[in-house]
Specification:
With 852 residues, this protein is α/β, with parallel strands linked by helices. The strands form 9 sheets. The chain has a 6-stranded mixed β-sheet with strand order 4-3-5-7-6-11. The termini are far apart. α2 packs parallel to α4 and α23 (576-596) runs antiparallel to α24. The chain binds zinc ion.
């Protein structure tokens, strides 16, 4: 008996304790919901969003709607409970998420329930996407969906969601607890409020026509980064920190500013932007002021922990004072070995540490980190938990020589910027990172420009081995935060590395290869062809951009082998044969997708097909605009217009699918002098005309009319005298940028002392042979913002009000109505009242014909 009673007692004890352990449970059975999502009684927005996300994905997976209820409304139920976020029930089970590390979460089956809960701190009342909200519970849901139920989020928007179909969902037993390795994991998004304003100024009709698309895509991108667990355990502010100092302190404390060669302290040249003024890093007064300002801020906010001391941007005007120079370390025979010892495996030390034309060594890291060290020691005395924030960037990007860096300095590493990259350059970057580590730097945050500088624009591209491989080196080296500038939304052409790097942010040990395989495997039966397709582009780009002679080609398209030059020469790098080979791979992927009957997979392949076609068309447009056409030649669209029209339509389709950031695609091209000629497609978008000819870009004349005398002086009747500053060629784009923002206009304001253009006069001479002009040709003026008058030769042909200017109709003037004789050159003159800001003539006028 004793034995038996003892057994029962033991069995009971076992059951009780087992209940506390993990057990399996069913959420959906044969397409019916057999569970309920239970939140606390007052879920914060990020918890509510987490519940909705779980419900959404389970519905797409099974068809069943699992209800969401607050715990007070639960009542009696046989359903399995999914306890989502902190609640009274969770507390009763002994789970307290506020005790977890920031942003950490648990995914656990326990007592017949599934717990999905995490640390949800910060300004929790703010909306779920806010960067001030920590959302452990949300990540718990994502973790379950991704790691247990096989969901993948390959890119922003529905087409990137991979949700395996099944009728029954069982989980567990599970007992998972995770916390982020980095306190900030961040992609800056190209789609954001400021860019929306700028794009609207350039393409008002285009933006108006797209309604909510911008906002929708903005939300899609936020959601995507959140699903991949981007976020902040801790927010810290940084950036060039003395941008307002010159105006504020130059008169009172000149000694904190850099000494220039002539002995004055302050700006490098009188017209230099004061935001670029350099400081004197040997100045004790500068240290005093920074400490003082830090303490004042900390008094306001006891959580203030970061003293931003990053030098201003720009690479001119570094301090020439004797005290600063004494801190510099010049490259000598004696210290070469010592420098090599830092970690440099094969670097050209002359280039890294040698002398520059300003008489200072290239690397000014020693003077700057002497300053940061001094500041860090002072800071430690008054705020032991605080950090000095510094950059490893520009002239102070290479590790200092024979110097240890204080542990309370957070160093922002700006580098690893351009891919594909040669072996030597790549090694230099890695060596430099290791050299910083050897200098004692404990806290490195990574702020690369690679997303901006590397991807081909509108053309298929991939790079896993290098860009993600290097990122793994940095992760292994213990970086504490990231800030990738800028995610451009090149989904249809270059999604894999964005996905792979995002995945590696949380699962820091999975490695690039595994994450890349995961991306490809999400294409199911087409996986191997998709991998072949992206491998093809990776190898091709690597070969082409590291081939001998590539720099010479790039320099034919600009003054340095940078991003712009890579984009403008893309047709020289990718050939028709390359596209033909890649097309075969994509066709096989398409066949596999069609055979599977999986509509979501077919849609994903469709996105890649559109990206492929965009690539072909972009290369054609690039060949025409960057080689055949030139800014000093008129552009004839016969033959070329169908390419631009189709390119526009392909992007329209990508926009409808909400996968690529089509706004970024267009606005960047315009910023780079319309390198593919696509702006004409906007001008003619949905209009019953097609372009025939646009006059040479730099035959346009612009003249301000600040005293309103143009009409009295009949400027329309002659060739307008443009002020010297506005003589062609204008830097940047002539149109779409907003006149007051352009350098020549700012220079004109400086030269003339005038503050306003008042009237803007635009003039161009058309020179069109009669045999090239259709009989029904018109002068086509796509955009005028502001009230305007238009003359052809001496004849006033149109007058438009301010309202008409922004209306949907382009101004069209039949050539015969204007009195133009076929084959004779004619002068078009347009006066726009107050062409300030984004107003004025914001697109070029051209000759057009009614569309077929
Ligand atoms: Zn100095």
């Amino acid at each position: 008996m004793m034995h038996r009673r003892w057994s029962v007692a033991l069995a009971l004890a076992l059951i009780v304790s087992l209940a506390g352990f993990a057990s399996a449970l069913t959420l959906v059975k044969d397409g019916k919901a057999v569970s309920v999502i239970v939140t606390g009684n007052n879920p914060v927005p990020s918890q509510q969003k987490a519940a909705e996300e779980l419900q959404y994905h389970l519905k797409r997976m099974t068809g069943a709607v699992v209800p969401i209820v607050a715990e007070k409304d639960l009542g009696e139920t046989d359903a399995a409970l999914v306890l989502l976020g902190q609640s009274d029930k969770l507390s009763a089970m002994g789970v307290d998420t506020t005790k977890l590390a920031k942003e950490a979460y648990i995914v656990k089956t326990m007592d017949g329930a599934l717990i999905l809960a995490g640390e949800d701190g910060g300004n929790t009342s703010e909306e779920w996407a806010s960067s001030r909200v920590r959302s452990g519970t949300y990540y718990a849901v994502c973790d379950l969906l991704q790691d247990q139920l096989g969901v993948r989020w390959l890119w922003p928007g529905k087409t990137g969601e991979v949700i395996p179909k099944r009728s029954t969902v069982e989980v567990g037993p599970l007992d998972i607890q995770e916390a982020p390795k980095m306190f900030q994991r961040h992609y800056r998004l190209g789609i954001k409020d400021r860019n929306r304003v700028e794009t609207t100024a350039k393409f008002p009709r285009y933006m108006a026509d797209r309604g909510d698309l911008y906002s929708t895509m903005q939300e899609n991108e936020s959601l995507w980064t959140k699903r991949l667990k981007q976020g902040y355990s801790l927010k810290f502010a940084y950036g060039h920190s003395y941008t307002a100092w010159y105006n504020r302190y130059h008169d009172t404390v000149p000694e904190v500013f850099a000494m220039q060669k002539d002995g004055h302290r302050g700006l490098y040249t009188p017209t230099e932007n004061p935001q670029l003024v350099k400081m004197c890093p040997s100045s004790d007064k500068l240290v005093d002021m920074l400490i003082e300002q830090f303490l004042a801020a900390r008094k306001e906010n006891p959580d203030h922990r970061f003293l931003n001391a990053i030098e201003n941007d720009g690479n001119n005007g570094f301090c020439q004072c004797e005290a600063c120079k004494a801190l510099d370390v010049n490259l000598t025979e004696e210290n070469r070995a010592q420098i090599r010892d830092l970690a440099w495996s094969g670097a050209d030390l002359e280039a890294v540490y040698g002398a520059k034309s300003d008489g200072l060594p290239y690397s000014l890291s020693n003077r700057y980190f002497h300053f940061y060290n001094k500041l860090a020691r002072r800071l430690r005395e008054v705020a032991p938990d605080a950090f000095v924030v510094a950059y490893a960037y520009d002239r102070y990007k290479y590790a200092p020589i024979n110097m240890q860096v204080e542990p309370n300095i957070l160093v922002g590493l700006i580098g690893f910027n351009m891919y594909p990259v040669s072996k030597e350059e790549r090694q230099l970057q890695i060596d430099n990172f290791l050299a910083w580590k050897k200098s004692g730097v404990k806290q490195v945050f990574f702020r690369p420009n690679s997303f901006c500088f590397s991807w081909a624009h509108g053309v298929p591209w991939n790079n896993i081995d290098q860009i993600a491989g290097d990122f793994q080196v940095l992760l292994d080296g213990g970086i504490v935060a990231t800030d990738f500038d800028t995610y451009p939304g090149y989904t249809s052409t270059g999604a894999p590395p964005f996905y792979v790097i995002a995945r590696m942010h949380w699962d820091t040990e999975m490695g690039p290869e595994k994450a890349y395989t995961e991306f490809c495997d999400a294409f199911g039966p087409a996986a191997s062809e998709i991998k072949r397709y992206f491998d093809f582009w990776e190898n091709l780009m690597l070969d082409r951009y590291t081939a001998p002679g590539v720099e010479e080609i790039l320099l034919q398209y600009g003054n340095r082998p940078g991003r712009r030059e890579r984009w403008k020469s893309i047709h020289r790098m990718v050939t028709r044969q390359d596209f033909a080979r890649a097309a075969q791979m994509l066709q096989k992927a398409r066949a596999a997708a069609d055979a599977s009957g999986d509509a979501d997979l077919q849609e994903r392949i469709r996105v890649l097909e559109l990206g492929f076609r965009m690539g072909e068309l972009t290369c054609k447009a690039s060949a025409f605009n960057n080689d055949d056409a030139a800014s000093d030649k008129d552009t004839w669209y016969s033959g070329h217009w169908p390419v631009l029209k189709e390119l526009f339509e392909v992007r329209e389709e990508l926009g409808r699918l909400q996968c690529d950031d089509i706004f970024w695609l267009f606005s960047y091209e315009v910023e780079y002098a319309d390198m593919y000629g696509t702006r004409i497609a906007h001008d003619f978008y949905k209009r019953p005309f097609a372009p025939v000819m646009a006059p040479a870009h730099d035959s346009w004349i612009f003249a301000p009319d600040p005293d309103d005398q143009g009409e009295a002086q009949e400027w329309f009747a002659k060739e307008i005298e443009a002020p010297v500053a506005l003589k062609k060629p204008l830097s940047g784009d002539f149109f779409y940028t907003g006149w007051t923002g352009t350098l020549p206009v700012r220079q004109w304001m400086v030269d003339s002392g005038k503050k306003k253009v008042v009237n803007g006069w635009y003039q161009v001479v058309f020179n069109a042979p009669a045999d090239k002009l259709p009989a029904d040709a018109v002068i086509f003026v796509p955009y005028i913002q502001g009230a305007a008058k238009i003359w052809v030769n001496d004849k006033l042909v149109r007058e438009t009000t301010e309202e008409q200017g922004v209306a949907d109709e382009a101004v069209t003037i039949p050539l015969n109505e204007a009195g133009v004789k076929a084959g004779e050159p004619f002068r078009l003159t347009i006066k726009v009242v107050e062409p300030e800001g984004s107003a004025g003539l914001i697109g070029p006028a051209c000759i057009a014909e009614p569309a077929a």
